[in-house]
Write a structure and sequence with these properties.
The protein is an alpha+beta fold. The protein has two domains: 86 residues, Immunoglobulin-like (Sandwich); 305 residues, Alpha/alpha barrel (Glycosyltransferase), CATH 1.50.10.10. It has 15 helices and ten strands. Strands 2, 4, 5, 8, 9 and 10 form a six-stranded mixed β-sheet that branches. A four-stranded antiparallel β-sheet has the order 1-3-7-6, with no helix packed on it. A hairpin with a 5-residue loop joins strand 4 and strand 5.
């Protein structure tokens, strides 16, 4: 090939790359999230069309050379799930280029309805991010809004309403089984743990769910939790092989065995054929587990979970011995693993033959864990959650919901509320993990937990709503 042509092509690629980088830096400097807003929709549309056209044109050129443009994100962080009238309303601003004043704009009329002051920025000691805060708690007029600054762009839209949490709760209920189920051992565990969290939500806050069902229309009857749980149970049973296992995997089979036992106990008394099908599934799964070696810590935790669920629903000396021997040898840290914690909940909630001294000991261990978490959370003056990990946040919500159910506390309820807001976008990165419509985003951190996290959030939110009127 002619060397001149080769050099020319390389220069073209370099020029395209430099042009793309220049555009990106300009976009970042000028804040492509509509930093120079007009008051009319025409101005917005024109700005957006121009911006989109530029991105598509240069993006296509760079993509042909294997170069991808970064995705523009706002640096004004709000709770996308919405704010509640009469409660605190905060906004966060990333970096140090956002001015000193923010405006809350009515998204329908495009009129400024509130002007607030941006406090001096400070470094988040947990994430290291530079963040500034603004407060608009006094704005209580219901409606749809967004927040903008002179140089920092604008936020995603959000609602203010008296029933924001109730609407979100109803949407979470509708979407419990809405995620794509993973065809894998990990997927089986995720669905199983998610089902258990949902069942506890139903058992602990049944009146709240009965009121929510009244808001569903006739076309949404399949959104009732019992229907969704039966659907998830059917999906799990379809994965069971002739030898009784799921994927020939010990942990997946144990999770399946345990949740089928709990489901049989919950639904079998009302639907005889469901009870029979679940019983066959449980018997086959346990028979397979008994034939497998159980020498690793993970396998022993999984076997404990299956055994304790069988003990809770059936009784039986064999199951009781396996469960109590494991718990006595464990001695501490009963929140360290999912199999262990969900198994402990099953043991404590068993109606007969449990060791009350052992229950008291485990309860104290869990309470101590929650208290230690709360001490760390108290130091988190920005978000009030104590961690910057979505996974740790959901774990905290699970433990807090359990303790808060037993002994309702304003402190625990406030942390659960903070966690809901954090997952709704009020966090150090402005990531909205779940929206007001109850639909979870497809972010990397959620992979592997789509059903369990749905169950935990529904449990936490039902616990919070139930306690608002009690504490």
């Amino acid at each position: 090939m002619n060397m001149y042509i080769v050099v020319r092509r390389r220069l073209f690629v370099c020029a395209a790359l430099m042009l793309g980088l220049l555009l990106c830096s300009c976009g970042s400097f000028q804040n492509t999230q509509h930093s120079k807003m007009g008051n009319g929709t025409e101005a917005q549309a024109a700005d957006k069309a121009q911006e989109t056209g530029q991105t598509e044109g240069y993006g296509t050129l760079l993509a042909s050379q294997g170069i991808a443009l970064p995705v523009s994100v706002p640096n004004v962080y709000v709770d996308v799930t919405g704010y509640v009238t009469g409660r605190e309303k905060k906004v966060f601003f990333a970096g140090d280029r956002h001015g000193r004043v923010f405006e809350v704009v009515d998204s329908q009329q495009h009129e400024v309805v509130y002007t607030g002051r941006i406090l001096s920025g400070q470094q988040d000691p947990i994430s290291g991010k530079m963040l500034s805060t603004g407060d608009f708690t006094s704005l209580d007029e219901p409606g749809m809004y967004y927040i903008r600054t002179a140089v920092g762009g604008q936020s995603y839209p959000f609602a203010i309403a008296a029933d924001t949490y109730e609407k979100m709760f109803l949407n979470l209920l509708r979407n419990v089984s809405g995620a794509e189920m993973q065809e894998s051992p990990a997927g089986v565990c995720d669905v199983s743990f998610g089902m258990q969290a949902v069942m506890y939500a139903l058992q602990w806050n049944g009146t709240l769910f009965e009121a929510a069902y009244e808001q569903l229309d006739k076309s949404e009857q399949d959104r009732q939790l019992v229907t969704q749980l039966l659907y998830m149970g059917k999906w799990l049973r379809a994965k069971q092989q002739e030898n009784g296992s799921l994927y020939d995997d010990y942990e997946a089979t144990a999770a399946f065995c345990g949740i089928m036992a709990m489901s049989r106990d919950m639904f079998g008394r009302y639907e005889a054929h469901v009870g029979e099908e679940y019983q066959k599934a449980v018997t086959a799964a346990w028979a397979w587990l008994e034939q497998q070696p159980c020498t690793t810590k993970s396998a022993q935790s999984a076997r404990f979970y299956a055994a304790v669920q069988l003990f809770r629903s059936e009784g039986g000396e064999t199951y009781q011995t396996i469960a109590e021997t494991f718990l006595q040898e464990k001695k501490e840290d009963y929140t360290s693993e999912r199999f262990v914690f969900y198994g402990v909940l099953a043991y404590i909630s068993a109606e007969k033959k449990t060791d009350r001294d052992l229950c008291t000991y485990m309860m104290q261990d869990i309470v101590d864990k929650v208290k230690a978490d709360c001490e760390e959370i108290e130091k988190d003056y920005l978000f009030g959650v104590g961690t910057r990990s979505a996974e740790e946040n959901m774990s905290h919500m699970l433990y807090l919901s359990f303790i808060n159910y037993l002994t309702p506390s304003k402190e625990y309820t406030a942390i659960i509320e903070n966690t809901i807001q954090y997952m709704g976008g009020l966090n150090e990165q402005g990531i909205c993990y779940v929206g007001a419509d109850g639909v979870w985003s497809d972010t990397e951190s959620i992979q592997g937990h789509p059903f369990e996290w749905r169950g935990i959030l529904l449990l936490g939110m039902s616990d919070m709503l139930g306690n608002f009127s009690e504490v």
